C-alpha cells in the first residue's frame, strides 16, 4: 500500500516561496543554486518533521524492538532527491521548479555529497538505512559526525592529490537536528581501580580520566512512500563545561576536536592508531549509553533488554561494543556478570566484510589498556571466562587458543565481536563459505550455529529512478509502473528482452546516458569520446586485489594491437576509471599515475584515434557514480577470486544494463546465477585454484613472463619508456608483477581476460545479442535489492517485528 504526501504543485510553490523569503530575503531569480537548495531542503524538512515525531511516538507507545546499526562509515551521497522521491513528491517539485523558471538540476547539484564513508562498507550502511525505513522496520544508525568526509581527489600531473572535504562547510548539514538533551559523557585514559561498594560488590574508581561530551545529531531516514522516518544518529565531540579548565589552549581543544575531525581515508587498514581507537570507542560508548537510557524509560527490567534492543556491529570498528555494554550494565547499573553477559550476547551481532587480515583490527594490549583501562579489564575477564568455559566443555585446545580475544599481546576485535554476540555473517555466499572454511574456521568449528550469510544489496530506487530517469520511463513503457513499488515486478521485462522495438528503446536509453557522460568527460578532461565505442568502466577504490592493473595490461595489449596493425578491424572502446587510493597506499597511487600517463599517450596518438580512449575521472564519489554507472556497457568486476567479499557496484551496473566482465568472486557469482552463464562474461581462476597456489607455493610469475611473448611485451611496456613520465611507477609495477611474484595472480589470469574481452567485442557487434544480454541483466536484478537483504537481517538476526506489517512487503 502506498502512502505518499498529498501535495499539489501550487501548494508546493507557495510553501517553497514562503520558506525562501523567510530565509534569503532576495528575489528568487537572483538566488544562487545553493540558496535555492537550502530553501528547498528547509521546505522538505517541514514536510517530514511531523512524520518523524509521529514515528518516534508510535515506536515508544508500542514498545517496539529497535535494531541499532553501529558503523564507523555512512555514505549516503546526496539526500535531496532521495528524500523527495521517498516522500512521493519528486515529480511535483520538479514541476514546481519548471513553473518558477528555476533549474532543478543545478539546485540538486548544489548539494554536497555526504561522504562519511570510503567505499562499499559505508555505502552499504547508507543503503540499509534507506531500506530499513522503506520496509518499515525500526532500525536506527549510529555513527560519527565527521567534520571532514572522505578527501576530495584532484589529479595533478597524473598524480592523486588529496584535499580536505569540508562537506558541511559554512552552511551546516541541512538535514540534521542537534539533540542536546541526549548528550552523554565518554571517558578515556587515566587509572582505574576497584573499590568496595558494600554488599560484597566492587565499583570502579577512576583517576585522571579524560571526560568528553558526546552530542548527537540526528539525520532522518525516510522510507519510500510509506510515511516512515527512522533515525541516523551521528555523534560529535565537545568539551564538557565542568572540565573546560583542563583545555586552556586552542591546541588542547583541537586535540579533542580531532576525534570527530576526519574520516579515516583508509579503506582496509588501520592507521593513526590511537585516534582511530578513540573514534571507535567514542561512537560505541555514546550510542550504547543512550540506548540503555531510552530502554529504561519503558520501565522494563534491564536483564531483558535483548527483547527490545539489537546492536549490530558493522565490521570490526565498533567491535568494542560487547565489552562496553558489559561495562555499562555492570558498572553503571550494578548488574551481575552472568545476567549482563546473557543480555550482551543476545543483543550483539556482527558482520564481517573482508577476509583481508590487515582489515581485521587488532590493538596492542599496551595501547588499548592505556586508552581504555576499564574496558580492557573487562575484556580480559571475558577472555578468561571464555577459556574456562570452553575448557569445561572439552573443546579442542588449539582451537580455543586460536579464537581467544587477548593473544600474543594483542586484542583481537573480530574475536570479541564473535564471542560477545550471537550471529556472524558474511556478505555474499562465497565470502561466508570462506569465513567458515578459512578465515574464521576455528570459530565455525566451535559455534557453527552463529554463522549465516546475508548477501549485500543496493537501493535500486537510487540507481534507477534517480540516477537513470529515462531508463525508468522506458521500463514503465514496457512493463508498467509496478516495479517502482515492487522491484520484483521487474521480472516482467524478461518477456520483452528479444522484442526488437524494446531492444531499440533500451539501446537508445543507453546511448543517451553515454552522451551525458561523454559531455561530462569532455568538459572535465578535454578528451572527446565517441558514444559509438563500448564504454568499459571500472570504478571502485584503488586496491591491488581489485586488479585495476589487469585492466591496464589489457589496454596496453590493445594499444600494441592497433599500433601493429592500424588498419585492422577493431571494435572501439572507451576505458573509464574512477578510483581513490588511500593516501598512504603508495602502490595504489602509482597505478593512478600510470593510468593517467597511459591515457595521455593513447588519447593523443592520431593513429589510435577513436579506436581507443582512456579516461580517469577524478574524485569518484556517489554523485559521480550516478552519472557514470548508467552509461556503462561493460562493468569490470575483476578482483582475484576470493578477495572481494561481495562488491555492490557490480549490482548497480547490472541493473542499469551493463554486461559484467567478472571473475568468480563475491556477488559476481550470484549475479551469474540470476542472469545465466550466457549473459555475463566470466574469466579467470576460481577460488579453489587460487587456494591451490597458496597451498603448493607453485606459482611462478617470472616463468609466465618469460614464456608468454604477449605478456612479456605488455609488462615491458611499463619500463621501456613507451609510457612517458612514469619511470619509477613503472618499475614498481614491474617489480610487483615479476620480481615479487605477482601477489594477485594477474599474469596467470591475463590470457583468459584477454580472450574474454575479445568475446565482449564480438558480442557488442551483434546488437540483438548484446541487447538481449543487457536487458537480461536489468530484468533479473531484483534479487539484489537491499530491501530484501534488510528483511533477512531483521527477521533472522535481529528478530524485529514489523510495525507497519504487510504494508510494503513485496508480493
Ligand atoms: O565492503 C563492501 C563489500 C566489499 C568490501 C567492502 C569493505 C570496505 O569498503 C571497507 C572495509 C571492509 O572490511 C570491507 O571490500 O567487497 O561489498 C560491503 O560489504
UniProtKB/TrEMBL annotation:
Keywords from the named record: Allosteric enzyme, Carbohydrate metabolism, Glycosyltransferase, Pyridoxal phosphate, Transferase
Catalytic reaction list: [(1->4)-alpha-D-glucosyl](n) + phosphate = [(1->4)-alpha-D-glucosyl](n-1) + alpha-D-glucose 1-phosphate
GO biological process: glycogen catabolic process
EC number in record: 2.4.1.1
Cofactor: pyridoxal 5'-phosphate
Residue positions where N6-(pyridoxal phosphate)lysine is found in the record: 652
GO CC annotation: cytoplasm
InterPro entries: Glycg_phsphrylas, Glyco_trans_35
Molecular functions (GO terms): glycogen phosphorylase activity; pyridoxal phosphate binding
SUPFAM superfamilies reported in the protein's UniProt record: UDP-Glycosyltransferase/glycogen phosphorylase (SSF53756)
PANTHER family on file: GLYCOGEN PHOSPHORYLASE, GLYCOGEN PHOSPHORYLASE, LIVER FORM
Function: Allosteric enzyme that catalyzes the rate-limiting step in glycogen catabolism, the phosphorolytic cleavage of glycogen to produce glucose-1-phosphate, and plays a central role in maintaining cellular and organismal glucose homeostasis. Phosphorylase is an important allosteric enzyme in carbohydrate metabolism. Enzymes from different sources differ in their regulatory mechanisms and in their natural substrates. However, all known phosphorylases share catalytic and structural properties.
Record's protein name: Alpha-1,4 glucan phosphorylase
Species per Swiss-Prot/TrEMBL record: Alloscardovia macacae
Amino acid at each position: 500500500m502506498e502512502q505518499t504526501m498529498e501535495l499539489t504543485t501550487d501548494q508546493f510553490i507557495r510553501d517553497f516561496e514562503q520558506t525562501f523569503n523567510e530565509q534569503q530575503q532576495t528575489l528568487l531569480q537572483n538566488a544562487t543554486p545553493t540558496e535555492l537548495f537550502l530553501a528547498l531542503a528547509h521546505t522538505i524538512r517541514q514536510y517530514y518533521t511531523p512524520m518523524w515525531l509521529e514515528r518516534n511516538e508510535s515506536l515508544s507507545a508500542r514498545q517496539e524492538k529497535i535494531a541499532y546499526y553501529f558503523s564507523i562509515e555512512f555514505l549516503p551521497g546526496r539526500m535531496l532527491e532521495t528524500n523527495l522521491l521517498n516522500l512521493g513528491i519528486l515529480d511535483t517539485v520538479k514541476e514546481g521548479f519548471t513553473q518558477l523558471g528555476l533549474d532543478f538540476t543545478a539546485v540538486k547539484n548544489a548539494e554536497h555529497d555526504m561522504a562519511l564513508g570510503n567505499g562499499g562498507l559505508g555505502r552499504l550502511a547508507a543503503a540499509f538505512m534507506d531500506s530499513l525505513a522503506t520496509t518499515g522496520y525500526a532500525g536506527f544508525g549510529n555513527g560519527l559526525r565527521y567534520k571532514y568526509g572522505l578527501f576530495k581527489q584532484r589529479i595533478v600531473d597524473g598524480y592523486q592529490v588529496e584535499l580536505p572535504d569540508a562537506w558541511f562547510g559554512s552552511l551546516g548539514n541541512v538535514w540534521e537536528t542537534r539533540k542536546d538533551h541526549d548528550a552523554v559523557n565518554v571517558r578515556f585514559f587515566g587509572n582505574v581501580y576497584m573499590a568496595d561498594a558494600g554488599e560484597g560488590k566492587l565499583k570502579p574508581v577512576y583517576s585522571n580520566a579524560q571526560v568528553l561530551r558526546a552530542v548527537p545529531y540526528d539525520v532522518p531516514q525516510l522510507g519510500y512512500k510509506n510515511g516512515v522516518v527512522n533515525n541516523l544518529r551521528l555523534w560529535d565531540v565537545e568539551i564538557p563545561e565542568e572540565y573546560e579548565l583542563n583545555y586552556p589552549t586552542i591546541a588542547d581543544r583541537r586535540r579533542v576536536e580531532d576525534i570527530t575531525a576526519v574520516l579515516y581515508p583508509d579503506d582496509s587498514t588501520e592507521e593513526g592508531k590511537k585516534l582511530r581507537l578513540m573514534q571507535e570507542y567514542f561512537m560505541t560508548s555514546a550510542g550504547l549509553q543512550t540506548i540503555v537510557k531510552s530502554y529504561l524509560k519503558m520501565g522494563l527490567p534491564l536483564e531483558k533488554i535483548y527483547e527490545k534492543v539489537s546492536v549490530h556491529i558493522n565490521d570490526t570498528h565498533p567491535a568494542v561494543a560487547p565489552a562496553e555494554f558489559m561495562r555499562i550494565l555492570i558498572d553503571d547499573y550494578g548488574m551481575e556478570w552472568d545476567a549482563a553477559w546473557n543480555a550482551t550476547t543476545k543483543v550483539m551481532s556482527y558482520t564481517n566484510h573482508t577476509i583481508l587480515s590487515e582489515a581485521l583490527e587488532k590493538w596492542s594490549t599496551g595501547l588499548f589498556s592505556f586508552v581504555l583501562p576499564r574496558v580492557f579489564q573487562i575484556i580480559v575477564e571475558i577472555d578468561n571466562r571464555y577459556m574456562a568455559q570452553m575448557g569445561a566443555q572439552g573443546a579442542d585446545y588449539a582451537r580455543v587458543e586460536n579464537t581467544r580475544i587477548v593473544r600474543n599481546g594483542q586484542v583481537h576485535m573480530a574475536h570479541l565481536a564473535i564471542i560477545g554476540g550471537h550471529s556472524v555473517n558474511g556478505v555474499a555466499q562465497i565470502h561466508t563459505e570462506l569465513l567458515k572454511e578459512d578465515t574464521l574456521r576455528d570459530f565455525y568449528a566451535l559455534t557453527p550455529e552463529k554463522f549465516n550469510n546475508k548477501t549485500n544489496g543496493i537501493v535500486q530506487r537510487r540507481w534507477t529512478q534517480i540516477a537513470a530517469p529515462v531508463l525508468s520511463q522506458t521500463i514503465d513503457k514496457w512493463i508498467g509502473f509496478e516495479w517502482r513499488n515492487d522491484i520484483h515486478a521487474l521480472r516482467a521485462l524478461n518477456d520483452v528482452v528479444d522484442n526488437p522495438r524494446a531492444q531499440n528503446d533500451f539501446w537508445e536509453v543507453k546511448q543517451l546516458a553515454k552522451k551525458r557522460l561523454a559531455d561530462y568527460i569532455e568538459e572535465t578532461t578535454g578528451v572527446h569520446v565517441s558514444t559509438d565505442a563500448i564504454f568499459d568502466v571500472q570504478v571502485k577504490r584503488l586496491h591491488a586485489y581489485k586488479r585495476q592493473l589487469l585492466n591496464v595490461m589489457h589496454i596496453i595489449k590493445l594499444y600494441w594491437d592497433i599500433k601493429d596493425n592500424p588498419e585492422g578491424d577493431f571494435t572501439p572502446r572507451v576505458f573509464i576509471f574512477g578510483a581513490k587510493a588511500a593516501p598512504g597506499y603508495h602502490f595504489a597511487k602509482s597505478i593512478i599515475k600510470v593510468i593517467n600517463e597511459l591515457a595521455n599517450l593513447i588519447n593523443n596518438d592520431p593513429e589510435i584515434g577513436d579506436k581507443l580512449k582512456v579516461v580517469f575521472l577524478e574524485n569518484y564519489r556517489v554523485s559521480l557514480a550516478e552519472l557514470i554507472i548508467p552509461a556503462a556497457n561493460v562493468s569490470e568486476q575483476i578482483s582475484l577470486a576470493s578477495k572481494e567479499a561481495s562488491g555492490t557496484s557490480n549490482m548497480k551496473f547490472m541493473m542499469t544494463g551493463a554486461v559484467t566482465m567478472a571473475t568468480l568472486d563475491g556477488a559476481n557469482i550470484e549475479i551469474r546465477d540470476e542472469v545465466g552463464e550466457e549473459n555475463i562474461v566470466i574469466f579467470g581462476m576460481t577460488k579453489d585454484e587460487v587456494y591451490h597456489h597458496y597451498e603448493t607455493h607453485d606459482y611462478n610469475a617470472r616463468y609466465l613472463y618469460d614464456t608468454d611473448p604477449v605478456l612479456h611485451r605488455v609488462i615491458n611496456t611499463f619500463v621501456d619508456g613507451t609510457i612517458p613520465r612514469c619511470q619509477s611507477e613503472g618499475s614498481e609495477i614491474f617489480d610487483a608483477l615479476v620480481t615479487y611474484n605477482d601477489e594477485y595472480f594477474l599474469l596467470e589470469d591475463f590470457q583468459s581476460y584477454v580472450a574474454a574481452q575479445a568475446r565482449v567485442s564480438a558480442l557488442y557487434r551483434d546488437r540483438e545479442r548484446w541487447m538481449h544480454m543487457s536487458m537480461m541483466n536489468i530484468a533479473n536484478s531484483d534479487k539484489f535489492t537491499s530491501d530484501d537483504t534488510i528483511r533477512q537481517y531483521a527477521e533472522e538476526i535481529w528478530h524485529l517485528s514489523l510495525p507497519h506489517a504487510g504494508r510494503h512487503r513485496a508480493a
